[in-house]
Input
Amino acid sequence: MAQTEAQLRASKKYHQKFDNLQIRVPQGEKDVIAAHAASQNESLNTFVRRAISETMERDKRDTKEEE
Output
């Protein structure tokens, strides 16, 4: 069933709230990452965002400790 004009507008409005980030990993690694995310009861997207956020926070702390 095709989307209505209203559904298309709503979808476009929703997607405009986000940036897109694409990463490349070696073949098979996505499955390993996804399995780990699932073991933490997280989606792949949520896990990757958390991993990035935690790494950035750790890097900030490490930089402050070096000063």
In short: The chain is about 65% helix and 0% strand.
